[in-house]
Amino acid sequence: MTGKGTVLITGAAGGIGSVLVEAYIQAGWRVAATDLEDLCAGLEQKIMRHGQAFEFMVLPADLQRPEDIEELFLELDKQGWLVNTLINNAGFGITKPLTDLTVAEWDSVLNVNLRAAFLCAKETAARLRRAGASGSIVNISSTRAIMSEPDTEAYAASKGGISALTHALAASLGQDGIRVNSISPGWIEIEDYEALREVDHSQHPAGRVGRPADIARACLYLTDPGNDFVTGTDLIVDGGMTRKMIYET
Does the record carry Lipid biosynthesis as a key word (predicted)? Predict the structure, then answer.
């Protein structure tokens, strides 16, 4: 095991996920990254640009399938990798009028965003318990857990569930030395930051829209082994937007 340990990052090919992978590699961690199979080749190529002076593994998995999650952890076992840090980053949303949203669409969002986080935490905790090792879990929630835009019921419900799951896991796993926290990002621009308008930035008390690196730094803080007194918390990283009162003029 290198650096501070072995981290498993889900949803690793996306905007925040790929930045998390790079941040943990640069911080000296051994990194296992997972995403859908058709995204893994591009992710591996991106990682390889950093050279080969680190350990990493890219493992395809469809987190809507519980059997894929089980196979993911069995492969880690086969390679002798004990995950002591899990970042449940995988997630997506469907914006659709409530009366048009199908049960299958609802289930797809809840299964990836919430059920998969539960299953990955369960698999990680079981292995840490058997090894008698401490660890850390970070669940990526959202400020949408406490505020919403129209037509986002499935996403909001999944993120509200993530926040509740976090403090429940923290209570259950604390006796095993496993800390569990969540991060609730606000507006994190992952596509074209330079195209943002001044009004986009100025509506944030921090004076700017967020970047994926802001979430990576928060994750590194929460998963640092030295921060063993921080558990069961939700760290809001939103430039102050959820604390700003807005009045129409």
Answer: no
Give dist(CA 180, CA 182) in Å, integer: 7
The identity of residue 40, as a single letter, is C
Query: Which of residues 75 and 4 earns the better pLDDT score?
Result: 75
Q: Which position among 24, 155, 221, 247 bears the catalytic label?
A: 155
Number of domains in the chain: 1
Query: Do the beta carbons of residue 6 and residue 82 sit within 8 Å?
Result: yes
Q: Distances in Å between the alpha carbon of 95 and those of 73, 92, 110, 143? A: 32, 10, 14, 16
**Which tens digit of pLDDT belongs to each residue from 150-192?**
999 999 999 999 999 999 999 999 999 999 999 999 889 888 8
Instruction: Specify if 1 maps to a domain.
Output: no
> Which residue from 142, 42, 127 is spatially nearest to 89, judged by alpha carbons?
142
Catalytic annotation present for 247: no
131/146 Cα distance (integer angstroms):
37
Residue 79 placed within a domain: yes
Q: What is the pTM of this model?
A: 0.94
- Identify the domain containing residue 196 by its residue range: 6-243
